[in-house]
Design a protein that fits this description.
18 helices; 413 residues; 0% strand; single chain; Na+/H+ antiporter like fold; mainly alpha
């Protein structure tokens, strides 16, 4: 198959995503106001608590069996590598660009977490349905592709809310502690100035230490040879914060719980026979959940487009930082992804299925996960900057996704 044919196959699903995203952007305009801030907030909650868990649960229960889960064991490892490599590249980017502290967690989140959910669920089935698809029969390709995309989404959700969430939380804590430290220094300076003036020390302070100094005055009830040291209040607050910041509620997000339940139903044969299949006694329950899950892709894509409008109205992120994140996400990570998948294939860690390898490679070339924006809102850190970064990374995603999809298919076929 020629390179131009592969380019057309790769372009079609990206255009679908682009058109729906543009519609979401249009609906969020002030003069239309169908997806304003309040509407987006409500729709985002429905997606987070209902549609997202429903599609993860239904797809995993229907497509992932115990045998398939064993054969796909490398995918969770591959996704973890995307997070680790992305974090390492983000750390280098932070050092090179001297990124401010309040944006460092956001940069790591954007570079490490890709959109492993709705984009793959759109791109993979669309590629399989193309008449000149390089992955064989469309029916088998669609079933396998849906299984790969579903597992990718489930594993991605778990990593985002355990790995990325806690990294961004750590940087949010650093920002809070810095503000507390600055406040403590200001208070200490004011107290020392007050004590010094109250003691009427008028002699110059010389290095010999023989002159009048606030530390030379004895506090009431203490001897001159005994020094007292109080634990700063901010230290106690930090200990309490570390002890209580392990937010299991966020780690076990609704989609994470749905992933666990979907894995159990899909891999345990007796339970699977009760819910999955035309003759299953509880097939109505599975069908209802699947029907809810089908609403995720259009709703989530509309939200992505609507959220990009905020980036058009705001600034505050340096051009160099934007270019750096684009280079990490769309040049360095995809190139390293080719090396990782080729090495895994060489050592026999993955089979010969070209569609599976395509999905593994594509996981390195995706734009940042929209959950990064949600996490930044939770910690109230870099929300406006996140909108700008999402705008530019998703604006160029159509070109790079098409380019890398074409390259990957060309390498595999």
């Amino acid at each position: 198959m020629g390179f131009s044919d592969l380019f057309i196959v790769a372009l079609m699903p990206v255009l679908e995503v682009l058109l729906v995203t543009a519609l979401g952007l249009f609906l969020a305009l002030d003069r239309v106001d169908l997806l304003g801030p309040e509407s987006r907030h409500r729709l985002n909650n429905i997606v987070f608590y209902v549609f997202g868990p429903a599609i993860v649960f239904s797809n995993l229960a229907e497509t992932i069996t115990f045998q398939k889960l064993v054969s796909l064991w490398f995918m969770p490892v591959n996704i973890l590598l995307t997070f680790i490599i992305g974090s390492a590249l983000a750390w280098l980017l932070i050092k090179i660009t001297k990124t401010p502290l309040h944006l460092q967690g956001l940069v790591i989140g954007c570079c490490s977490a890709g959109n492993l959910g709705n984009l793959l669920l759109i791109i993979i089935p669309a590629v399989c349905k193309e008449s000149n698809s390089p992955f064989g029969d469309s029916s088998y390709c669609s079933v396998d592709g849906e299984a790969y995309a579903s597992l990718s989404m489930a594993v991605g959700v778990i990593y985002i809310w355990s790995y990325v969430y806690n990294i961004m939380r750590v940087f949010a804590v650093k920002i809070t502690d810095k503000h507390v430290d600055d406040s403590t220094v200001s208070i200490n300076i004011s107290v020392e100035d007050t004590e010094t003036s109250s003691k009427s020390c008028k002699e110059p302070l010389l290095p010999s230490g023989d002159n009048c100094h606030p530390d030379h005055f004895e506090k009431p009830g203490t001897s001159s040879g005994v020094k007292t040291k109080k634990i700063p209040i901010w230290t106690i607050q930090r200990i309490k914060k570390i002890a209580t910041d392990l937010n299991l509620k966020m780690i076990f997000a609704p989609a994470t719980i749905a992933s666990i339940v979907g894995f159990v139903i899909g891999t345990v044969s007796p339970i699977r026979k009760l819910m999955i299949g035309d003759g299953a006694p509880l097939r109505c329950l599975g069908s209802s959940v699947s029907l809810l899950g089908e609403a995720l892709i259009p709703c989530m894509t509309l939200i992505v487009g609507a959220n990009l409008l905020q980036g058009l109205k705001r600034s505050g992120v340096g051009f160099v930082l934007i270019i750096g994140i684009i280079v990490v996400r769309y040049i360095l990570l995809p190139l390293l992804g080719i090396g990782v998948v080729k090495a895994a294939s060489h050592f026999g860690l993955i089979g010969s299925d070209s569609l599976y390898k395509f999905v593994l490679m594509l996981q390195y070339a995706l734009p940042p996960a929209m959950a990064v924006g949600t996490i930044s809102q939770l910690f109230n850190a870099g929300q406006s900057e996140c909108s700008v970064l999402m705008l530019w990374t998703y604006a160029v995603a159509s070109f790079f996704l098409t380019f890398w999809s074409t390259i990957y298919m060309w390498l595999l076929t």
